[in-house]
Amino acid sequence: MPEQLANQQAALARIQSFLSDSTERVLIGIIGKPGAGKSTLSKFLMSKLPKEFVTVVPMDGYHLSNKVLKDLKRADRKGAPDTFDVAGFASLVKRIRSEQTQNIYYPIFDRAIEESIAAQGVVTSDTKVVIIEGNYLLHDAGGWEAVKDLLDESWMVDVDDDKRIARLISRHIAYGKEPEAAKAWAKGTDEANAQLIERGRARADFVVRID
C-alpha cells in the first residue's frame, strides 16, 4: 500500500532531499484523477524549487490531435487512455532517464487551442529532478504499463471527489463549454477516466493530500 505524504510541504521536502543527496537524475510521477490538482501541486513545487535543476513534463503534450481523434472516432472520449500517443510518451520518459547529457525537447498541450505544440518544453542536461505529470502513469494496459518502471517514485494526488468535480466543471466552462455541457463532460467522460485512474492507486509509492 502507498505511504502518505501529508501535504504539499512534505512533498516539497522530499524533492529537496533528492536535490541534496542524489547523484543521478530522479524521475517522480504525479498521478491523479481529472481535476485532482496535479498541476496545482506541480506549480507549488516549482515555485519553491530551483528551476535550473527541476522541471515538470506533462503527459498531456502527447494528446492525439483533434483531427486524428475525429478520424479514429474517439473525439468524444478525449482524455481516455487510448487518445494519447502512448508509445511516444513512453519513449520520451526513457530518453529523460537515459540521455542525461543533452537537452531533450517535448510537446506542451495548450488548453486555449486544445492542441499540443511541439518542442515547447525542455529537460536540460542540468536537470536533476523531473516531475512527470499525468493521469495514466500507473495504468497497466494499452502500453502505459511501460511507464511505471521508468519512474523512481509515483505519487497519487488525493482529493475530495465533490471538490474535484466542481473544479472540473468550472474549468470546462472557463475554456468555452456551456454550463450543462461542462457538467455532462465532467460527470461522463471525465468520471469514466477517473474510475480507471483510481484502480492504479495501490501501485503508487505515496499518496499526497493537498486540499
From TrEMBL:
At the top level, the lineage of the source is: Bacteria
The answer, when asked if Chloroplast is one of the entry's keywords, is no
Q: Using the record's annotation, list all stretches that form the Phosphoribulokinase/uridine kinase domain.
A: 27-208
Q: Which UniProt keywords apply?
A: Kinase, Transferase
Q: Which GO terms describe its molecular function?
A: ATP binding; kinase activity
Which is one Pfam family of this protein? PRK
* SUPFAM superfamilies per UniProt: P-loop containing nucleoside triphosphate hydrolases
Q: Note whether Transmembrane occurs among the keywords.
A: no
Q: Which InterPro entries match?
A: P-loop_NTPase, PRK/URK
Q: Where is the signal peptide?
A: none
NCBIfam families assigned: PRK09270.1-2 (NF006743)
Supply the PANTHER family for this chain: URIDINE KINASE
The protein's name in its UniProt record? Nucleoside/nucleotide kinase family protein
What is the scientific name of the source organism? Candidatus Planktophila lacus
Q: What is the lineage of its organism?
A: Bacteria, Bacillati, Actinomycetota, Actinomycetes, Candidatus Nanopelagicales
